Amino acid sequence: MRASTGQPVSVPSDKVLNLGSIAAAAIDHGKRQSLGGAAAAAQRSGSGSGSTSGGSSGSNANKLRPLLPNVPDRIGKRPSSPLAQRPKKKKRETVQAACQSCRKRKVKCDGVRPVCAPCASSGAACGYSVPEGLSQRDAERQRMNQVSKSHRDLLTILDLLRRGPDAESAEILRQVKSAATLEDAVARIADATLLLPGGSPEQSRGSTASPDSSTWTYLHDIRPFPHHRRLASPFDQPEHVFEILYRNKPPNTFFSPLDVSTSDVLPVSRWVPGIDDDDYHLTHLLTLFWTWDNTFSNVIDRVLFLEDMRLLDPLDPAPNMEHTFCTTFLVLCLLTVSCLYSTHPKVYAVPGDHSTRGWKFACAAKRILEDERRRPSITVLQGITLLWLYEGSAGDARQAERYMWEMVGLYFKLGLDRRAMPDVCPGWDSRMGRELQAISLIVWGIYSFNAKIAVNFEYRFYISRPRMEKMFEHPLSYLTLPESPTANWCAYPVDCRFQPSHYREVFAAQCTLAELAEDLMDLIGSSRDKVPAEIDKNVRLTMEGVYNGLIRWRAGLPDHLQPNNSTLPSVLSLHATYELVMIRLLSPLAAKFPNERFADSTAAALKTSSNFSMINTVWTFRSHYSLKHEYWLMQVCAAAAMSVLFHLDDGCVDVFVRACQVLHETGEFVRMANKNLTVIQQLINRYRIRLPQVGRAVEAQYFVALRNRQSTPYSDGTRVLMYVPSRDGDCKVDNVQVGMLVAPIENLSLIVD
Question: Where are the transmembrane segments (predicted)?
Answer without folding.
Answer: none
